[in-house]
Write a structure and sequence with these properties.
Length: 65
């Protein structure tokens, strides 16, 4: 496996994590949980944005070469 392929797979993995975070935040807001809904949404949005940016960075880096 080349470095470019590994970088692309890392980007895909991070984008999948971002999608799972969105689903987790939606599901946790439906059910009652110990944390407040506002903090769950804020932390979920921050984490999703971070994973999405990281994923697209790795994908861009793999396609750049």
């Amino acid at each position: 496996m080349t470095k470019s392929e590994l970088t692309e797979k890392t980007g895909d993995f991070l984008l999948d994590i971002a999608k799972l975070l969105v689903a987790g935040v939606v599901l946790s807001s439906i059910f009652d949980n110990a944390m407040s809904k506002i903090s769950t949404l804020v932390w979920g949005i921050i984490a999703t944005i971070a994973f999405t940016i990281s994923g697209y960075y790795f994908l861009y880096k793999s396609l750049k070469k």
